[in-house]
Amino acid sequence: MREISVRRIADEIRRLCIEANRVLPEDLEKVIRAAEKTETSAIGRSILADLSANLDAARECSLPVCQDTGMAVVFAEVGQEVHLTGGSFEDAVNEGVRRGYLDGLLRCSVVADPIRRGNTGDNTPAVLHTRIVPGDRLKLTVAPKGFGSENMSRIKMFTPAADEDDIVGFVEETVRIAGGNPCPPVVLGVGIGGDFEQCALLAKTALCRPVSERNRDPFYAGLERRMLEKINRLNVGPQGFGGSTTALAVNIEQAPTHIAGLPVAVNVGCHVTRRASAVL
């Protein structure tokens, strides 16, 4: 049994909150810079150049890449041979978020109640997803999620009568309806299968996969490519001004489902689909 202090967890979450908001994952940054060279629209190329310059400025000036520093979504894979010491794991995660957002001068965007509102003042509580996995390590991923893109997300409970074209059409329709609202070019996380809540979680998890990695199943990898091609023919373009770069990537995660169902969720991420990870 390996012991990990929750104080160490809080320190790491603090660091990851700041890092994720200031520096995009290398794989995503490469795709954005590459799109500037392939974009067919002149205004689209100009916008993509501005987005690249913004990434440089954020890194050089230690500033957030976007003013919406999002809700702190935290994924924790806890090894079953790990013993957490010194207090509550959930409290430690929220303490790390609190310190990260206040110390990093990041915008605090969480309200205490969905209807009565009231800002919590420190971006807590985090949205926490925890899995018990084999081993004696703890992997933490912080994925700040802004709501310009989150608000464009959708879920549909298809029946098994739906076919591949119906699913691709639903994903394409989601992007078309969203238009310029989610600050395209977007990254799409698509969840297929499970039940209502697992499907949505699959879509969120898909956004945490590098955009350079395709689904390990060749069938779903092909579906990712087909969705991306159709979406990029919509002519929404960078920031909604038209062009051939509406989406940077489509990541699909799938799971077994009920014989009577075929749920599909689309979690829309903007061009700054952020994440940072650490293993303790």
Q: How many individual helices? A: 8
Reading the helices and strands in chain order gives EHHHEEHEEHEHEHHEEE
Rg, alpha carbons: 19 Å
Total strand segments: 10
Describe it for me?
It is a single chain. The protein is an alpha/beta fold and 280 residues long. It is 39% helix and 25% strand. The chain has helices at 6-22, 26-38, 42-61, 89-103, 147-150, 164-178, 196-207, 218-231; strands at residues 2-5, 71-79, 82-85, 127-133, 138-145, 154-158, 186-194, 247-257, 262-269, 276-279. The strands form 3 sheets. A 4-stranded mixed beta sheet has the order 4-2-5-10. A 4-stranded mixed beta sheet has the order 6-9-7-8. It is globular. The mean pLDDT is 98.
What would a concise description of this structure say?
The protein has 280 residues and is an alpha/beta fold.
List the helices and strands and how they pair.
Blueprint lengths: L1 E4 H17 L3 H13 L3 H20 L9 E9 L2 E4 L3 H15 L23 E7 L4 E8 L1 H4 L3 E5 L5 H15 L7 E9 L1 H12 L10 H14 L15 E11 L4 E8 L6 E4 L1
Parallel strand pairs: 1-3, 2-4, 7-8
Antiparallel strand pairs: 2-5, 5-10, 6-9, 7-9
